[in-house]
Design brief:
By secondary structure, the chain is of the alpha+beta class. The protein contains two helices and seven strands. It has a three-stranded antiparallel sheet with strand order 3-6-7, with no helix packed on it. Strands 1-2 form a two-stranded parallel sheet. The chain has a two-stranded antiparallel sheet with strand order 4-5. Helix 1 packs parallel to helix 2. The radius of gyration is 18 Å and the shape is elongated. Bound molecules: zinc ion (2 copies). One zinc ion binds next to loops.
């Protein structure tokens, strides 16, 4: 049985530590966990169809948690690690918005955390919106 800590973000289980029952237990633990966004399961033991279904659930819960964390980031104007975002002009290109994945060009104004290399474009986080005022349209209830 898995006990999933409420605050961890990443689960990493390697060779043959987890089989069918393990994957299913992890999937059900993740149903109520809201912080894990990455699960790495390397070289799994042979899984049944049920095991593969559970893997899909795990992936779905990871994506759900990531989406929730991003919406919280937008609401609070913080990166996923809780640093305050600052409105800056990008000094170079090659960045993309961490929420919508849109590419950002040099000189574009974005909300940025330098520590984490985290960017939000002004479509995702409008410049004049007061902190806490944005109600995301695509958030799950
Ligand atoms: Zn964006
Ligand atoms: Zn940060």
């Amino acid at each position: 049985m898995f006990r999933v800590n409420k605050t961890i973000e990443k689960v990493n289980l390697s060779y043959n530590q987890i089989g069918d029952e393990g994957v299913k237990a992890l999937a059900s633990a993740m149903e109520i966990n809201e912080t894990i966004t990455v699960v790495q399961l390397d070289k799994l033991a042979m899984l049944s169809d049920e095991g593969h279904e559970a893997l899909k659930d795990i992936e779905r819960f990871c994506n759900r948690n990531k989406a929730r964390m991003l919406e919280a980031a937008v609401r609070n104007r913080q990166c996923l690690c809780g640093h305050d975002l600052r409105l800056e002009e990008l000094p170079n290109g090659g960045h993309s918005c961490d929420r919508c994945d849109g590419s950002l060009s040099q000189g574009e104004r974005v909300y940025r955390c330098w520590t984490c290399d985290f960017d939000l474009c002004l479509d995702c986080l409008p410049e004049d919106a007061p902190v806490g005022s944005i109600v995301p349209t695509n958030a799950e209830p």
